[in-house]
Amino acid sequence: MKSLCIIAALLALAWPALSEAAQATAERLYVIECGARMAPDVAPWTPGVNVGKPIDFVDTCYVIKHGTGWMVWDTGLPDAIFAAPAADPSAWRRNKTLAGELDRIGIKPVDVKFLAVSHTHPDHVGNVELFPQAMLLVQQAEYDWPNQDGSPRFKPSHPVTKLQGDHDVFSDGSVMILSTPGHTPGHQSLLVRLPQTGAVLLSGDAVHLKDNWDAKRVPAINVDKEKSSASMQHMAEVMAQNNAQLWINHDKPQGETMKHPPDYYQ
Ligand SMILES: [Zn+2]
C-alpha cells in the first residue's frame, strides 16, 4: 500500500514535468527595426476609413534563438537604403541596418540556420541574400508566384524548403509557421513560444495596424480578399488556443513599445 502511495506521488510529480516538456520554447526573440516610412494616405490599408490621413509605418525583422540554431523572420528593406536614402520623404528609409543589428546581438549571418519571410513584397525580402547559406522556408505558392516582370521571387540557387501549409520549424512545436494566404498567394505568419513572454504571433502583413485587427478590416492590397479574411479568422483561433499576443509587423505605436537589441524577449 505504501509503495502504491509512493508511485502515485511520483506520478503526480512527473505529470507537470511531462506537460512542460511537451510545450517546448525558443530561448529568445529579438525585435529589430528594418525600415520606416510616412505614407501620405492610409486609405489603401483602411478602405473608407481615415481617407486622406497620413500614417507612419515601421518595418520589422525578428531574430529567434533556439537551442538548436538561429532563425530570422522577415528581412526588411535592403540594408543598402541606409547608405543611400531616397529623396522622396514618403519612401521607405532605414535608420539602422539588419547586418549592424545582428552584430549588436553578437551573431553573424552565417550563424543563421533557418530564414523565413512572411511574403515576398520588397519590404520583407530586402536582405534574403545576406544569408545565402540559410535554409529558406517559404510556401510553394509564394515561391512559384512570379514577379510582375516574370522573374523569380528568390535566387534559384538559394537553399529552400517549399512548404504546403503549416510547418514546425525546429520539430518541437516551439516555432510554427502558419499558412495565412490572402495578402499574397503564399503569405505566412509565425507562432513563437517563449519561456517567460508566452506565445507570440508575428503577423506578417495579414494585418498592418492594430485598429484594422480590432475592426477585422481587410486592406485593399490583397491578391485574395476572401482568403485574407479567412486567415485573420484562423489567426484569431490560433491566438485563443495558445493564449498568444499579436505582434504586428508594420504597426508603429506597437513597435515603439517594444524592446530592441541588445534587449530581447525571453
Ligand atoms: Zn509589408
Q: What's the helix and strand layout?
A:
Elements lengths: L1 H21 L5 E12 L15 E12 L2 E5 L6 H4 L14 H8 L6 E5 L18 E5 H4 L16 E4 L3 E2 L6 E5 L8 E7 L3 E5 L7 H6 L9 H18 L2 E3 L4 H5 L10
Parallel strand pairs: 3-4, 4-5, 5-6, 10-11
Antiparallel strand pairs: 1-2, 2-3, 7-8, 8-9, 9-10
The chain binds zinc ion (ZN).
Zinc ion (ZN) binds next to loops.
Summarize the structure.
The chain is α/β, with parallel strands linked by helices and 266 residues long.
Helix content: 10-25%
Biggest β-sheet description: 6 strands, mixed
Radius of gyration: 20 Å
Whole-number average pLDDT? 92
Structural class: alpha/beta
Order of helices and strands: HEEEHHEEHEEEEEHHEH
Bound molecules: zinc ion
Question: Tell me, what's the shape?
Answer: globular
Oligomer: single chain
Strand order of the largest sheet: 1-2-3-4-5-6
Report the total helices: 7
